[in-house]
Amino acid sequence: MTGPTGTDHGWAGSRRLLRLLRDLMKGGGSSQVRLDKVVDLIAQDIVAEVCSIYVMRSGEVLELFATKGLKPAAVHKLRIRVNQGLVGLIAAQARPVALADAQSHPNFAYFPETGEEVYQSLMGVPIMRGGRLLGVLVVQNRTQRNYTEEEVEALETVAMVLAELLAGDRLLDLTAATPGGEGGAMPGRLSGMVLNEGLAIGTAVPHQRGIVITQVVAEDPDAELTRLDDALGEMRDALDVMLARSEVARDGEHREVLETYRMFADDRGWLRRMHDAVRGGLTAEAAVQKIQNETRARMAAIKDPYLRARLADLDDLGNRLLHHLLRLDERQREEELPDDMVLIAADLGPAELLDYDPSRLRAVVLEHGAPTSHVAIVARALQIPMIGRCAGITTEVREGDQIIVDGETGQVLLRPSEAVRAGFVESMAAKERQKEAFRAVRDLPSVSRDGVDITLLINAGLMIDLPHLEEGGAEGIGLYRTEVPFMIRDSFPDVPTQTDIYSRILDAAEGKTVVFRTLDVGGDKVLPYWRGHDEDNPAMGWRAIRIGLDRPALLRRQLRALLHAAAGRSLSVMFPMVSDVAEFEAAKELLQREIDREKAFGDRLPAEIKIGAMLEVPALALQLPQLLPRCDFVSLGTNDLVQFLFAADRNNPRLARRYDTLSPAVLTFVRNIAQQAAEHGVPLTACGEMAGHPVEAMALIGCGVRRLSMAPQAVDQVKTMVRALEVEPLQDSIKQLLTLPDHSIREKLRSYASDRDIPI
């Protein structure tokens, strides 16, 4: 390192310091005595007037545990909240801070009990272990000092050694104490996002448990480099064997995800950083963990789900590499796991689920995760219930806790009482009996008791959704979300790639209807390789067909691929987020250009082309007399339509119960659209969540909708409802209910169904 005196120590200085710290760790004495020696040693080596160690305590506060240079009276007295001052900022972001003039930083906070007002510059790094923040290590200088990147990296390496010291001396037991006693083992409830539906009861198994690095400082860097390279080779071979397993060998997006994951094992940047860390004085396993900590810190700062998935891949690879380096016996570890595992993790890479026996894995709950994350795609392929974005799951759950996962509502029940557990077991049994009843109608027609045909379709977005088309007894795909394959790729797919995707979808549908919705990105669906601008209200911003018309080359390439894929077959294309007829006409014109292009080249065209609009913007409903003669079908995007009608963000939890989809306003709006569509002979399909809930589906049918597209797992129960229904009297009742001034007619519809033995 380069200190204020200009002495150049470089990485050699770092290695010398690591050796001194290693010897100190081997010595005796109390934890406090050793920490006091540590800060003194670091301050001398880095040539700093101050070195301080802050340890994370319960309640999201950092306690000053040891210092060289600040007032000794502040030790164990000074407590700083996470995000308070520069130390709190380092803890909140889990990233280093290096400032030549710390007092000018907006986060600077002055604590008079420390006497730190005389110090100008500050460098601090988080103390991490296994992805968990243990504390913060800080050095300070009286004069302004420009800390180099090499010095920051060296201090991060020292922080790794400190992490092992803190863990080894069991200081973490103090920090983990909670006011509830016994580790806060009271029952609890957490909420998250359903990534794959299903119900489960099991025993909590925290992911990545048991990886403990006992040697951080390298005795022989060259030997450590050899160990690292050997382990990398073993890991690559093991991944190749994994990809050959039967449950993941079949085609689908999960296969592409896993193959892309395998490519990350050869990522040059990842490999270079680990090699550099070994050359800096770390053992091979400590180098891997150092890069993991850096990766996790980057993950914490990134909101983009695609980029988070890529970083999760690297984190997963790091864990695999550690297992090879440490020669951990996976077979023995597997035998120690319970037969009813519920896997708990902050995040997972796409291959990590394959490390667990699927016959014993009941469910997965993640702190992060998203519907298009790689692990969610693999979970759907393996039919494992999964809940993501469950804040607090990794800190609230302990290994061995009993846990209930409700993959229908997104609820996670922690340490449930016997009464709650028994009730849920009965609910699961009832659900299974209900599924058996649903299976009985799977191959029967979706016709009401008074002879009205109701077409039931599924929503899909990935190849792995297609088997549900046959299993659920649906008549086709009413909404294929073409943007989902775009969101799991590294770059915008070209025309041949898109053609292959759409061809496989049509092949799997075996002649059944498939309605392809053109690219609906923007808003909360961001393509990582194509950055837009931040918007104050993205749901109502530059998205869907608005992007397609402003960037016609993108839309034309997609339309060209659809025409190629459907050559000789029927093609249905739907444009999303259409606001007025002029937009629809402009989109049709782009499609016609592609049709003319295909004719000019002599290419084979689809046998039939149907063009439709997705009605999500209320303004379009006021132009239905002009729209309906110009389109072949219309679909209601109920999710966006309802939020736009009420001017209420459907993702805002404060508004979740304020407005109901079964309000007279919504249903009157739908009824008017259905009447006009019927008058023009244009098929109307309801897509979105309303169509998949029996009581809402019943209301839509009562308003005149005859085509419903829903999540695959909802088809059986909606069909059961339809077959018990008489449509004509329902329509009469709905007409009367819509005259009421009520907030919602939900309970009245429930009573209607109950009185007539209609299962909802």
Task: Give the topology.
Elements: H1 10-26, H2 31-46, E1 50-57, E2 61-68, E3 79-81, H3 85-93, E4 97-99, E5 121-129, E6 132-141, H4 149-168, H5 171-175, E7 188-191, E8 193-196, E9 199-206, H6 221-243, H7 246-249, H8 253-264, H9 268-279, H10 284-301, H11 305-326, H12 330-336, E10 341-345, E11 361-366, H13 374-382, E12 386-388, H14 393-396, E13 402-406, E14 411-414, H15 418-440, E15 455-460, H16 467-471, E16 476-481, H17 483-487, H18 495-509, E17 513-517, H19 545-550, H20 552-565, E18 570-575, H21 581-601, E19 608-615, H22 618-621, H23 624-627, E20 633-637, H24 638-646, H25 664-680, E21 684-687, H26 694-702, E22 707-710, H27 715-723, H28 727-737, H29 746-755
Parallel strand pairs: 9-10, 10-11, 11-12, 15-16, 15-22, 16-17, 17-18, 18-19, 19-20, 20-21, 21-22
Antiparallel strand pairs: 1-2, 1-6, 2-3, 4-5, 5-6, 7-14, 8-12, 9-13, 13-14
Helix pairs in contact: 1-2, 1-4, 6-8, 6-11, 8-13, 9-10, 10-11, 18-20, 20-21, 26-28, 26-29
Please describe what this structure looks like.
By secondary structure, this protein is an alpha/beta fold. It folds into three domains: 10-175, GAF domain (Beta-Lactamase, 2-Layer Sandwich); 197-427, Phosphohistidine domain (Glucose Oxidase, domain 1, 3-Layer(bba) Sandwich); 441-530 and 537-755, Phosphoenolpyruvate-binding domains (TIM Barrel, Alpha-Beta Barrel). 45% of the residues lie in helices and 16% in strands. It is built from 29 helices and 22 strands. It has an eight-stranded mixed sheet. An eight-stranded parallel β-barrel has the order 15-16-17-18-19-20-21-22, surrounded by six helices. The chain has a six-stranded antiparallel sheet with strand order 3-2-1-6-5-4, sandwiched between helices. β1 and β2 form a beta hairpin. It is elongated and about 85 Å long. The N and C termini lie far apart (70 Å). The model is unreliable at 1-12 and 172-184 (pLDDT under 50).
